[in-house]
Protein backbone atom coordinates (compact mmCIF):
# COMPACT_ATOMS: atom_id res chain seq x y z
CA UNK A 1 0.00 0.00 0.00
CA UNK A 2 2.82 2.39 0.84
CA UNK A 3 4.04 1.96 -2.74
CA UNK A 4 1.18 4.04 -4.10
CA UNK A 5 2.92 7.17 -2.89
CA UNK A 6 -0.43 8.77 -2.19
CA UNK A 7 -0.44 10.35 1.25
CA UNK A 8 -4.11 9.46 1.81
CA UNK A 9 -3.31 5.78 1.33
CA UNK A 10 -0.99 5.35 4.27
CA UNK A 11 -3.60 6.65 6.69
CA UNK A 12 -5.98 3.89 5.69
CA UNK A 13 -3.75 1.29 7.31
CA UNK A 14 -4.55 2.45 10.82
CA UNK A 15 -8.25 2.27 11.63
CA UNK A 16 -9.99 5.47 12.67
CA UNK A 17 -10.86 5.40 16.38
CA UNK A 18 -13.59 8.01 15.93
CA UNK A 19 -15.94 7.68 12.95
CA UNK A 20 -18.57 10.34 12.32
CA UNK A 21 -21.60 9.56 10.15
CA UNK A 22 -23.12 12.96 9.57
CA UNK A 23 -23.38 16.27 7.85
CA UNK A 24 -21.16 18.82 6.09
CA UNK A 25 -22.44 22.31 5.33
CA UNK A 26 -20.82 25.33 3.78
CA UNK A 27 -21.71 28.44 5.76
CA UNK A 28 -22.26 31.53 3.59
CA UNK A 29 -22.27 34.43 6.00
CA UNK A 30 -23.20 38.06 5.28
CA UNK A 31 -22.86 40.75 7.93
CA UNK A 32 -25.39 43.56 7.49
CA UNK A 33 -26.58 46.58 9.49
CA UNK A 34 -30.05 45.01 9.78
CA UNK A 35 -32.05 42.05 8.48
CA UNK A 36 -33.79 42.62 5.10
CA UNK A 37 -37.59 42.77 4.80
CA UNK A 38 -39.57 40.77 2.21
CA UNK A 39 -38.63 41.84 -1.33
CA UNK A 40 -35.93 44.18 -0.09
CA UNK A 41 -32.31 44.33 -1.23
CA UNK A 42 -29.83 45.64 1.29
CA UNK A 43 -26.05 45.95 1.31
CA UNK A 44 -23.89 44.12 3.78
CA UNK A 45 -20.37 45.13 4.81
CA UNK A 46 -18.71 41.74 5.03
CA UNK A 47 -19.02 38.25 3.55
CA UNK A 48 -17.19 35.06 4.44
CA UNK A 49 -17.41 31.33 3.82
CA UNK A 50 -17.00 28.91 6.71
CA UNK A 51 -16.99 25.17 7.17
CA UNK A 52 -19.89 23.87 9.24
CA UNK A 53 -22.40 21.07 9.62
CA UNK A 54 -22.67 19.35 12.97
CA UNK A 55 -21.08 16.08 11.89
CA UNK A 56 -18.07 17.71 10.31
CA UNK A 57 -17.63 20.12 13.22
CA UNK A 58 -17.56 17.28 15.73
CA UNK A 59 -15.11 15.33 13.61
CA UNK A 60 -12.78 18.32 13.30
CA UNK A 61 -12.73 18.88 17.07
CA UNK A 62 -11.95 15.20 17.76
CA UNK A 63 -9.19 15.25 15.12
CA UNK A 64 -7.61 18.42 16.55
CA UNK A 65 -7.28 16.70 19.93
CA UNK A 66 -5.30 13.94 18.22
CA UNK A 67 -7.97 11.35 17.42
CA UNK A 68 -7.65 9.25 14.26
CA UNK A 69 -10.89 10.11 12.54
CA UNK A 70 -12.94 9.30 9.45
CA UNK A 71 -15.86 11.27 8.09
CA UNK A 72 -18.69 9.32 6.46
CA UNK A 73 -20.74 11.94 4.63
CA UNK A 74 -21.85 13.19 1.23
CA UNK A 75 -21.05 16.46 -0.52
CA UNK A 76 -21.86 17.66 -4.04
CA UNK A 77 -19.57 17.30 -7.05
CA UNK A 78 -19.08 21.05 -6.91
CA UNK A 79 -16.53 23.56 -5.70
CA UNK A 80 -17.93 23.67 -2.14
CA UNK A 81 -17.69 19.90 -2.02
CA UNK A 82 -14.10 19.94 -3.28
CA UNK A 83 -13.21 22.61 -0.75
CA UNK A 84 -14.79 20.63 2.07
CA UNK A 85 -12.77 17.54 1.21
CA UNK A 86 -9.64 19.69 1.25
CA UNK A 87 -10.67 21.02 4.67
CA UNK A 88 -10.94 17.47 6.01
CA UNK A 89 -7.49 16.65 4.67
CA UNK A 90 -6.06 19.78 6.29
CA UNK A 91 -7.45 18.51 9.57
CA UNK A 92 -6.00 15.02 9.06
CA UNK A 93 -9.42 13.43 8.73
CA UNK A 94 -9.79 10.38 6.48
CA UNK A 95 -11.97 11.15 3.47
CA UNK A 96 -12.08 7.57 2.22
CA UNK A 97 -15.84 7.55 2.88
CA UNK A 98 -16.57 11.17 2.04
CA UNK A 99 -18.72 10.68 -1.04
CA UNK A 100 -19.39 13.18 -3.83
CA UNK A 101 -22.66 13.18 -5.76
CA UNK A 102 -23.77 14.89 -8.98
CA UNK A 103 -27.40 14.65 -7.88
CA UNK A 104 -27.42 17.46 -5.30
CA UNK A 105 -25.36 20.45 -4.22
CA UNK A 106 -23.15 20.44 -1.13
CA UNK A 107 -25.23 21.40 1.92
CA UNK A 108 -25.30 25.13 2.60
CA UNK A 109 -26.35 27.42 5.41
CA UNK A 110 -26.96 30.96 4.15
CA UNK A 111 -26.69 33.20 7.18
CA UNK A 112 -27.40 36.91 7.58
CA UNK A 113 -26.23 38.52 10.81
CA UNK A 114 -27.20 42.04 11.85
CA UNK A 115 -25.35 44.54 14.08
CA UNK A 116 -27.05 43.14 17.19
CA UNK A 117 -25.82 39.63 16.36
CA UNK A 118 -29.35 38.44 15.49
CA UNK A 119 -29.52 36.20 12.47
CA UNK A 120 -31.70 34.56 9.86
CA UNK A 121 -30.56 31.26 8.41
CA UNK A 122 -31.63 29.14 5.45
CA UNK A 123 -30.28 25.60 5.36
CA UNK A 124 -30.37 23.54 2.18
CA UNK A 125 -29.19 20.11 3.29
CA UNK A 126 -28.68 19.00 -0.35
CA UNK A 127 -26.19 16.13 -0.67
CA UNK A 128 -26.42 15.37 3.07
CA UNK A 129 -29.88 13.88 2.49
CA UNK A 130 -28.49 11.52 -0.16
CA UNK A 131 -26.14 9.76 2.26
CA UNK A 132 -27.74 6.30 2.31
CA UNK A 133 -27.42 2.81 3.64
CA UNK A 134 -25.42 1.66 0.57
CA UNK A 135 -22.81 4.27 1.49
CA UNK A 136 -22.77 2.91 5.04
CA UNK A 137 -22.27 -0.61 3.75
CA UNK A 138 -19.16 0.58 1.91
CA UNK A 139 -17.91 2.07 5.17
CA UNK A 140 -18.89 -0.98 7.25
CA UNK A 141 -15.30 -2.00 8.04
CA UNK A 142 -14.39 1.49 9.21
CA UNK A 143 -17.49 1.67 11.40
CA UNK A 144 -16.97 -1.75 12.96
CA UNK A 145 -13.28 -1.12 13.72
CA UNK A 146 -13.88 2.24 15.40
CA UNK A 147 -13.90 2.78 19.14
CA UNK A 148 -16.63 5.43 18.96
CA UNK A 149 -19.14 6.39 16.29
CA UNK A 150 -20.98 9.74 16.38
CA UNK A 151 -24.32 10.57 14.66
CA UNK A 152 -26.60 13.59 14.59
CA UNK A 153 -29.87 14.36 12.76
CA UNK A 154 -28.67 16.44 9.81
CA UNK A 155 -28.73 13.40 7.52
CA UNK A 156 -31.88 11.28 7.09
CA UNK A 157 -33.01 9.52 10.28
CA UNK A 158 -32.97 6.17 8.43
CA UNK A 159 -29.25 6.61 7.69
CA UNK A 160 -28.43 7.61 11.27
CA UNK A 161 -30.43 4.67 12.65
CA UNK A 162 -28.66 2.23 10.34
CA UNK A 163 -25.25 3.61 11.32
CA UNK A 164 -26.10 3.31 15.02
CA UNK A 165 -27.36 -0.23 14.49
CA UNK A 166 -24.15 -1.20 12.67
CA UNK A 167 -21.96 0.28 15.39
CA UNK A 168 -23.94 -1.29 18.21
CA UNK A 169 -23.80 -4.74 16.61
CA UNK A 170 -19.98 -4.48 16.47
CA UNK A 171 -19.62 -3.31 20.05
CA UNK A 172 -18.60 0.19 18.96
CA UNK A 173 -19.61 2.89 21.45
CA UNK A 174 -22.36 5.10 20.05
CA UNK A 175 -22.50 8.83 20.78
CA UNK A 176 -25.73 10.35 19.52
CA UNK A 177 -26.45 14.08 19.34
CA UNK A 178 -30.16 14.54 18.52
CA UNK A 179 -29.68 17.82 16.70
CA UNK A 180 -31.77 19.33 15.31
CA UNK A 181 -34.37 17.62 17.49
CA UNK A 182 -37.94 16.69 16.57
CA UNK A 183 -40.63 15.80 19.12
CA UNK A 184 -41.40 12.52 17.34
CA UNK A 185 -37.86 11.09 17.46
CA UNK A 186 -37.88 7.37 16.63
CA UNK A 187 -37.61 5.52 19.98
CA UNK A 188 -34.82 3.32 18.62
CA UNK A 189 -32.49 6.32 18.80
CA UNK A 190 -32.61 6.07 22.59
CA UNK A 191 -32.00 2.35 22.84
CA UNK A 192 -29.14 2.57 20.31
CA UNK A 193 -27.36 5.39 22.20
CA UNK A 194 -24.57 4.54 24.60
CA UNK A 195 -24.26 8.28 25.12
CA UNK A 196 -27.12 10.65 24.29
CA UNK A 197 -25.96 14.27 24.35
CA UNK A 198 -28.33 17.18 23.73
CA UNK A 199 -28.66 20.86 24.62
CA UNK A 200 -31.43 22.62 26.57
CA UNK A 201 -33.64 23.28 23.55
CA UNK A 202 -33.37 19.71 22.35
CA UNK A 203 -34.11 18.35 25.83
CA UNK A 204 -37.26 20.52 25.89
CA UNK A 205 -38.44 19.37 22.48
CA UNK A 206 -37.82 15.72 23.28
CA UNK A 207 -39.38 15.67 26.75
CA UNK A 208 -41.95 18.49 26.59
CA UNK A 209 -40.47 19.83 29.86
CA UNK A 210 -39.18 23.40 30.13
CA UNK A 211 -35.39 23.36 30.57
CA UNK A 212 -33.70 26.54 31.73
CA UNK A 213 -31.71 25.53 34.80
CA UNK A 214 -29.54 22.63 35.99
CA UNK A 215 -32.49 21.46 38.12
CA UNK A 216 -34.78 21.35 35.05
CA UNK A 217 -32.08 19.63 33.03
CA UNK A 218 -31.76 16.92 35.68
CA UNK A 219 -35.49 16.18 35.41
CA UNK A 220 -35.35 16.05 31.62
CA UNK A 221 -32.24 13.86 31.70
CA UNK A 222 -34.04 11.34 33.91
CA UNK A 223 -36.90 11.17 31.42
CA UNK A 224 -34.47 10.63 28.53
CA UNK A 225 -32.57 7.95 30.47
CA UNK A 226 -35.88 6.17 31.01
CA UNK A 227 -36.20 5.82 27.25
CA UNK A 228 -33.23 3.49 27.17
CA UNK A 229 -29.97 5.40 26.65
CA UNK A 230 -27.02 4.26 28.78
CA UNK A 231 -25.78 7.79 29.48
CA UNK A 232 -27.60 11.12 29.09
CA UNK A 233 -25.90 14.52 28.99
CA UNK A 234 -27.72 17.85 28.72
CA UNK A 235 -25.47 20.82 27.95
CA UNK A 236 -26.46 24.20 29.36
CA UNK A 237 -24.30 26.76 27.56
CA UNK A 238 -22.40 28.99 30.01
CA UNK A 239 -23.92 27.00 32.89
CA UNK A 240 -22.10 23.75 31.92
CA UNK A 241 -23.91 20.41 31.79
CA UNK A 242 -25.73 17.71 33.73
CA UNK A 243 -25.33 13.98 33.23
CA UNK A 244 -26.45 10.62 34.52
CA UNK A 245 -26.12 6.97 33.54
CA UNK A 246 -27.88 3.64 33.97
CA UNK A 247 -25.13 2.60 36.38
CA UNK A 248 -25.31 5.87 38.38
CA UNK A 249 -28.84 7.13 37.80
CA UNK A 250 -28.52 10.15 40.10
CA UNK A 251 -28.11 13.29 37.94
CA UNK A 252 -24.99 15.38 38.57
CA UNK A 253 -24.27 18.96 37.62
CA UNK A 254 -20.90 20.10 36.26
CA UNK A 255 -20.49 23.89 36.10
CA UNK A 256 -18.05 25.59 33.69
CA UNK A 257 -15.51 28.24 34.32
CA UNK A 258 -16.73 31.77 33.76
CA UNK A 259 -15.11 33.08 30.56
CA UNK A 260 -15.58 36.00 28.23
CA UNK A 261 -17.51 34.45 25.32
CA UNK A 262 -16.68 35.90 21.90
CA UNK A 263 -18.70 33.51 19.69
CA UNK A 264 -20.55 30.49 21.03
CA UNK A 265 -21.46 29.09 17.59
CA UNK A 266 -20.54 25.42 17.45
CA UNK A 267 -19.74 25.10 21.17
CA UNK A 268 -22.00 22.08 21.42
CA UNK A 269 -20.16 20.38 18.55
CA UNK A 270 -16.79 21.10 20.16
CA UNK A 271 -18.10 19.45 23.34
CA UNK A 272 -19.37 16.35 21.48
CA UNK A 273 -16.17 16.00 19.43
CA UNK A 274 -14.05 16.28 22.57
CA UNK A 275 -16.18 13.73 24.38
CA UNK A 276 -15.73 11.27 21.49
CA UNK A 277 -11.97 11.75 21.78
CA UNK A 278 -12.01 10.90 25.50
CA UNK A 279 -14.37 7.94 25.06
CA UNK A 280 -12.06 6.54 22.38
CA UNK A 281 -8.64 7.26 23.86
CA UNK A 282 -9.22 7.47 27.63
CA UNK A 283 -11.96 4.89 28.19
CA UNK A 284 -10.87 4.38 31.79
CA UNK A 285 -11.47 7.96 32.86
CA UNK A 286 -14.65 8.46 34.86
CA UNK A 287 -17.53 9.89 32.88
CA UNK A 288 -17.45 12.95 35.13
CA UNK A 289 -13.79 13.60 34.36
CA UNK A 290 -14.38 13.17 30.61
CA UNK A 291 -17.21 15.70 30.78
CA UNK A 292 -15.17 18.21 32.80
CA UNK A 293 -12.44 18.03 30.18
CA UNK A 294 -14.87 18.21 27.24
CA UNK A 295 -16.56 21.19 28.82
CA UNK A 296 -13.20 22.89 29.30
CA UNK A 297 -12.42 22.40 25.60
CA UNK A 298 -15.84 23.77 24.53
CA UNK A 299 -15.23 26.74 26.82
CA UNK A 300 -11.96 27.43 25.00
CA UNK A 301 -13.87 27.34 21.68
CA UNK A 302 -16.31 30.09 22.74
CA UNK A 303 -13.41 32.47 23.33
CA UNK A 304 -12.49 32.65 19.62
CA UNK A 305 -14.49 33.66 16.53
CA UNK A 306 -16.11 31.26 14.08
CA UNK A 307 -17.08 27.63 14.32
CA UNK A 308 -14.28 25.24 13.30
CA UNK A 309 -11.85 28.15 13.34
CA UNK A 310 -12.44 28.42 17.11
CA UNK A 311 -11.72 24.76 17.91
CA UNK A 312 -8.47 24.29 19.82
CA UNK A 313 -5.66 21.92 18.83
CA UNK A 314 -3.96 19.62 21.32
CA UNK A 315 -0.80 21.73 21.20
CA UNK A 316 -2.69 24.80 22.44
CA UNK A 317 -4.27 23.07 25.44
CA UNK A 318 -2.97 22.32 28.94
CA UNK A 319 -1.09 19.02 29.25
CA UNK A 320 -3.29 17.74 32.09
CA UNK A 321 -6.10 17.22 29.57
CA UNK A 322 -4.14 14.42 27.86
N1 LIG B 1 -20.91 31.29 27.17
C1 LIG B 1 -20.22 30.19 27.49
N2 LIG B 1 -19.24 30.25 28.43
C2 LIG B 1 -18.55 29.13 28.77
N3 LIG B 1 -18.74 27.93 28.22
C3 LIG B 1 -19.70 27.81 27.29
C4 LIG B 1 -20.48 28.93 26.87
N4 LIG B 1 -21.35 28.50 25.94
C5 LIG B 1 -21.10 27.18 25.76
N5 LIG B 1 -20.11 26.75 26.58
C6 LIG B 1 -19.56 25.39 26.67
O1 LIG B 1 -20.01 24.65 25.56
C7 LIG B 1 -20.82 23.54 25.98
C8 LIG B 1 -21.95 23.36 24.99
O2 LIG B 1 -22.67 24.56 24.87
P1 LIG B 1 -24.21 24.65 24.54
O3 LIG B 1 -24.98 23.97 25.62
O4 LIG B 1 -24.51 26.06 24.26
O5 LIG B 1 -24.31 23.76 23.22
P2 LIG B 1 -25.17 24.06 21.92
O6 LIG B 1 -26.39 24.82 22.30
O7 LIG B 1 -25.34 22.77 21.23
O8 LIG B 1 -24.18 25.00 21.15
P3 LIG B 1 -24.37 25.65 19.73
O9 LIG B 1 -25.78 25.37 19.28
O10 LIG B 1 -24.08 27.09 20.01
O11 LIG B 1 -23.33 24.99 18.93
C9 LIG B 1 -21.28 23.90 27.38
O12 LIG B 1 -21.56 22.74 28.14
C10 LIG B 1 -20.09 24.66 27.90
O13 LIG B 1 -19.07 23.77 28.31
C1 LIG C 1 -29.48 23.85 20.70
O1 LIG C 1 -29.11 23.36 19.45
C2 LIG C 1 -29.98 23.74 18.40
C3 LIG C 1 -29.50 23.04 17.15
O2 LIG C 1 -29.93 21.71 17.22
C4 LIG C 1 -29.97 25.24 18.25
O3 LIG C 1 -30.86 25.64 17.23
C5 LIG C 1 -30.39 25.87 19.57
O4 LIG C 1 -30.28 27.27 19.48
C6 LIG C 1 -29.50 25.37 20.69
N1 LIG C 1 -30.00 25.83 21.95
C7 LIG C 1 -29.31 26.63 22.76
C8 LIG C 1 -30.00 27.03 24.04
O5 LIG C 1 -28.17 26.99 22.50
C1 LIG D 1 -8.25 0.34 31.22
O1 LIG D 1 -8.36 -0.52 32.34
C2 LIG D 1 -8.28 -1.90 32.00
C3 LIG D 1 -8.62 -2.73 33.25
O2 LIG D 1 -8.10 -2.14 34.41
C4 LIG D 1 -6.88 -2.18 31.46
O3 LIG D 1 -6.77 -3.54 31.12
C5 LIG D 1 -6.69 -1.33 30.20
O4 LIG D 1 -5.37 -1.48 29.71
C6 LIG D 1 -6.94 0.15 30.49
N1 LIG D 1 -6.96 0.86 29.22
C7 LIG D 1 -6.32 2.00 29.00
C8 LIG D 1 -6.44 2.59 27.64
O5 LIG D 1 -5.66 2.56 29.86
TrEMBL record:
Positions of substrate binding: 25-27, 53-57, 154, 269
Pfam families: PfkB
Cofactor note text: Requires a divalent cation, most likely magnesium in vivo, as an electrophilic catalyst to aid phosphoryl group transfer. It is the chelate of the metal and the nucleotide that is the actual substrate.
Keyword Nucleotide-binding in record: yes
Subcellular location: Cytoplasm; Nucleus
InterPro entries attached to this UniProt entry: Carboh/pur_kinase_PfkB_CS (IPR002173), PfkB_dom (IPR011611), Ribo/fructo_kinase (IPR002139), Ribokinase (IPR011877), Ribokinase-like (IPR029056)
Pathway this chain belongs to: Carbohydrate metabolism; D-ribose degradation; D-ribose 5-phosphate from beta-D-ribopyranose: step 2/2
NCBIfam families: D_ribokin_bact (TIGR02152)
Assembly information from the UniProt record: Homodimer.
Family listed: Belongs to the carbohydrate kinase pfkB family. Belongs to the carbohydrate kinase PfkB family. Ribokinase subfamily.
This protein's name: Ribokinase
Provenance organism: Pipistrellus kuhlii (Kuhl's pipistrelle)
Lineage: Eukaryota, Metazoa, Chordata, Craniata, Vertebrata
Amino acid sequence: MAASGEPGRQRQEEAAAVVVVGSCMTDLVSLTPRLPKTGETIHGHKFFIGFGGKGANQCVQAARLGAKTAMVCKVGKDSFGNDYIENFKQNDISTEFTYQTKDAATGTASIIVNKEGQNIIVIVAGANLLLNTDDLREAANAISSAKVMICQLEVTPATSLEALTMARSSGVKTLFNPAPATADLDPRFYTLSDVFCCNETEAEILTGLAVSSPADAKKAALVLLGRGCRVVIVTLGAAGCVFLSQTEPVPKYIPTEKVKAVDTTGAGDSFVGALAFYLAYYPNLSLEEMLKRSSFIATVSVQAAGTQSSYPHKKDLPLYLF
